[in-house]
Sequence to fold (565 residues):
Amino acid sequence: MTTSNEYRRIAVFGGVYNNALALEATLADARRRDVDAVFCLGDMGGFGPHPDRVFPLLREGGVLAIQGNYDESIAGGRADCGCGYTDPRDNHYALVSYRYTLRHTSAENRRWLGALPLGRRLKLGPYQVLMAHGSPRQINEFLWESTTPNGLLRRMLREHETDVLLCTHTGIKWHRPLPDDQHVVNVGVIGRPENDGTPRVWYTLLTAGPALQVEFVPVHYDHEALAAQMDAEGLPPEFAETIRTGWWTTCLENLPSRERARGRY
Amino acid sequence: MSRLPLAVVDSAASAPLAPFVRFSTLWIQITGTWCNLECTHCINASGPRDPWLRPLDGAAARRAIAEAEELGVKDIYFTGGEPFLHAEILPLIERSLATAPTTVLTNGTAITEATADALAALARRSPYSLDIRVSLDDVDREENDRVRGEGSWARAVEAVRRLHARGILPIVTATEIAGHRDGGAAGATASYRAFRDFLRALGIDKPRVKIMPVFALGRRADGGGAILTEEALEGFDRATLQCADARVVADGGVYACPILAGLPGARLSSGSLEASFRPARLFHSACTTCHQTGMTCRNG
Fold:
């Protein structure tokens, strides 16, 4: 756990998923919005092409990152991404993506991933903020909007002595204000659209004021160029379809019924 | 009360322990082993006659949900037996959905048009997901009914259609007892594909499928299941076992997992959930199955 300084406005995103083009666009957008710092909640790899292209952007952009389950697996050279699918179709696509990323991530970048902290604490104005990848208790825990009860969130906030919890991992953003000015925000991901039929991706701006302001910011980037790179790398056409259309095509098993119902597949 | 159909060993006191890591999942064994079907592979030998584990009183279920809410539960499951035989099942689902995402494991035969309407209304009103898991053991009517009973295929398929028509995406849950008996990964892949294709042909455009192994438990117990030892668990992370973060409320008390509910010696508390938050003995052949397959009774 890393504790940092006090901030007024921060940009936070998760799930880069090898999408260097979206990362570049996100960082440029955040800089224009006068943020004090940019944070990434992990999962640099998976899904997209050319894994090594994201690391210079993260380092040179001064992004303060934590480790996701994908990063933990890649750093350790593990057999799979640790996403825990049971459906063989989902496992097939997850493995294709994982093996490609592992094969194309340099030893130096794997070491960098392995050295990332598992969480961060900071002050945002008067708010204590805790950052985790999945949840503060489990790196690959899915906190979906429709399957994460308020009672569980209050317990997490109490046990971890924080006012605000930021997480990612699911790929779809949400914000849950709770009593006593507590908040939980799934900051979304920038590597893959969020199953809403548009190719845009999302990051989150948090601003401390009299109240906490949570703003989800859409990012439009050259998704056609990314999809073309994916095709050229021989990644499954189902992945490029998601980038082009915004609909998830694979790894649907873990989607709860409400989130699944919103998608095309 | 009829004979307990699950083998229990005498050496429970010396069995290895599973730690209790945290409380995530509440299972409610709402109808005990009372069911309108009598499937040949049922893991707790449920059936229509003389259930060896009685249904849970609705008030006890509500108390468990309220306590679980205080304890920060993550998700709630109703199982049995057949949950939709319980007179209070709909208000209990409503109560559960006010607290946490809720799943009901059903054979689908009691999901009438009116019940499907009521479930859809509950799902719309709740901030949390409602999942209905409908058991169907084969896409082929004859193969399914050979295992689950005459007419069960048609009624389960109708339930899937009814739920889907109302915007609920049911999870069709199958064991590999019928059809696709290749075994191993190839068998599972074939089963998933067969069910997905079948559901799409029914007009279910977002098919959800869960395939489970068949257990030598309940009506298929052979009495000779291996029991876990400390040696067998060496190097294994016991915190990954479901009993490390789940508890089951059934008639008579709180247990570590749905399969052990009602078994003598398996009870962890007589009523309070919090009192059951202690290590559980891995004394049953079902514990061996859980350890070996790494499977989960949860949705994913």
Notes: The interface with chain B takes residues 84-89, 137, 144, 146-149, 151-152, 154-156, 252-254, 256-261, 263, 265 of chain A (CB under 8 Å). Chain A has a mean pLDDT of 95. Chain A has one domain: 2-262.
